[in-house]
Specification:
Ferredoxin, single chain, Fe-S_cluster_ET, globular, two-stranded antiparallel ribbon, electron transport
């Protein structure tokens, strides 16, 4: 997973949807990825967080 920092609008929706996968920097509120490659059972949570991002700043890169 990645977050486009320039596109992030700091809404925190990703943190609300997946607090074990995302956080926000205290200094500016930009989202940060805590787990770049979640386990297979966590990908749905990652996709949900990406869907809730109002600026579409989150990309989920799933493994084959």
């Amino acid at each position: 997973m990645t977050v486009d920092e320039e596109q992030c609008c700091c809404s925190g929706q990703c943190v609300l949807a997946a607090p074990d996968l995302f956080d926000q920097r205290e200094e500016d509120g930009i989202a940060v990825v805590l787990v770049a490659e979640p386990t297979a059972d966590r990908y749905e949570e990652a996709r949900t967080a990406a869907r809730h991002c109002p600026s579409n700043a989150i990309s989920v890169h799933e493994r084959d």
